[in-house]
Amino acid sequence: xxxxxxxxxxxxxxxxxxxxxxxxxxxxxxxxxxxxxxxxxxxxxxxxxxxxxxxxxxxxxxxxxxxxxxxxxxxxxxxxxxxxxxxxxxxxxxxxxxxxxxxxxxxxxxxxxxxxxxxxxxxxxxxxxxxxxxxxxxxxxxxxxxxxxxxxxxxxxxxxxxxxxxxxxxxxxxxxxxxxxxxxxxxxxxxxxxxxxxxxxxxxxxxxxxxxxxxxxxxxxxxxxxxxxxxxxxxxxxxx
Length: 240
What we know:
Layout: E1 4-8, H1 19-27, E2 32-35, H2 50-65, E3 70-75, H3 77-86, E4 96-100, H4 108-122, H5 129-139, H6 158-164, H7 170-173, E5 181-186, H8 195-201, E6 206-210, H9 217-220, H10 222-239
Parallel strand pairs: 1-2, 1-3, 3-4, 4-5, 5-6
Helix pairs in contact: 1-10, 4-6
C-alpha cells in the first residue's frame, strides 16, 4: 500500500503553507492532504477549539489510513497538536510523525509573553499585517514567500488557539509515541528552547536541526524539509 501524507499547519496560517511540500510529493506520486484547522484558511468562520482541531486531524488520518500507512507532519502549533494526537492513550493509525518547530511546552511565562506580543500586534491599525509581511519578505525565498498568507491570516482565532494549547499534556503524550518520530528545528528557532526535554521524552526520535533557518523552516529551506520527508517516507515504507 502507498504511504499517505497528512500535513497540519501552524497558527495564523493555513493549508497553503505546505504548497512547496505538496508540489514535491505530487511530483513523486505520493498521496498527500494538507488540512485546514478550525478558524483557519477555508474554515476561518469556524470557532477554534482543541477538540475540534484534534478531531480534524483524526478524521484526515483515519480516512488516509484506509488507503495506506500514514505519515503525519505538523509545523509549530500543528506540530504540538500532532504530538498530542499521536501520543494518545489509544494510539491512532499513524505510521510516522514529523514534528517541526515545536519543541517547547506551550505554558507558563513563555506562552504569556507570546500571547502578549501577538495581542500587541493585533491592536495595531492593520493588526500587524505590515510587520508580518516585512518579516516574510526579509526571511523567506520568493518562491515560497506567499504560501503562508495565501489562505488568509487567522487573526481572530490566534489568541483562542494559543490559550487552548495550555491544555495539551505533552509530558505524558510524547513518551507514548512508539512510531518513527523526527523533530525538525531551524537553527535560530525560538521554539528550540526545550529541545533537550523533548528528545529525553522520546529518546528514539531523531533530531534534525536545519542551519541558517528560523521558525518557518518549511518555507525558508523547502528543499531541506523535503529531504526530511523523503527520509521519513523511506522509513515508513520499509516498516510497512
